[in-house]
Amino acid sequence: MNKLANTVTSIDPDSDQFQFDTIAFAMRVASWDTVAKVVDEVLRITNRFGVETLYFCGVPRGRQTFAETVLAKSGADEWFSEYTRKGYFRVDPVIREVRRNGRPFLWSEIVVNQEKSPDGAAVMNKRHTYGFNDGLVVPIHSPGNRTNLVSMSGTHLNLTPLARQLLPLVAIRAFERIQDINLVGPQKSSLTARECEILSYVARGESAARIGVALSIAENTVETHVRHACLKLGAFNRAHAVAIAITDNLIQI
Prior knowledge:
The protein is an alpha+beta fold. The chain has 2 domains: 3-182, Beta-Lactamase (2-Layer Sandwich); 193-247, Arc Repressor Mutant, subunit A. The protein has 11 helices and 5 strands; from the N terminus they run H-H-E-H-E-H-H-E-H-E-E-H-H-H-H-H. It has helices at 16-28, 35-46, 66-69, 77-85, 93-100, 118-129, 161-182, 193-203, 208-215, 219-233, 238-247; strands at residues 53-58, 70-74, 105-106, 134-142, 146-154. The protein has a 5-stranded antiparallel sheet with strand order 2-1-5-4-3, with helices on both faces. A hairpin with a 3-residue loop joins strand 4 and strand 5 (146-154). Helix 1 (16-28) runs parallel beside helix 7 (161-182) and helix 8 crosses helix 11.
């Protein structure tokens, strides 16, 4: 168990301090240059809700093993060893849910039919034998049909409604930073001048149709430039592309 898991905090999880910490994390994460620093900061924020174990990983494809997809982790070494050694990911209901679900979910929200999926039910029960009462999973579907996830779990997980809203944002920003540090996935290519120009319009809330009129190009051409920008930046959608472009000083608004 990570030493931070035993830290006693007097901070109300739903207080302004938690919201401030979340915003500060999002603003500072790009400046951290080690995976350990990112993981420690995520634990610092999530510890107040009982999070002890973190996994930043992908969903195995083809003959990939689960261990090959892990970008970073903290805690539960014995469970990780058994999970990877026995290939539980092949029948794990959590992995199945990540593949089909784009929204964050709790382990406890997954319904597993014991008769139809005895192996899956066994994996879920095995988690409890290792002391995990629940976990929050944040699916991250990247360009190129790559499926990733961040898992936050603990023996006494207790997430408030506000935590359910804000912790996925922390998870996504942390995953992006860890991915960059590890140089995993496609490198961010330079945007063209036109792509930057169009993202600037998007950042100001302009529609593809209005941007097309302003630049004297077809609406479909605008959409094509936006798609290319998203792929180059590794963004999930246009709003995410704008956020990355602003953070990387590629555009100004």
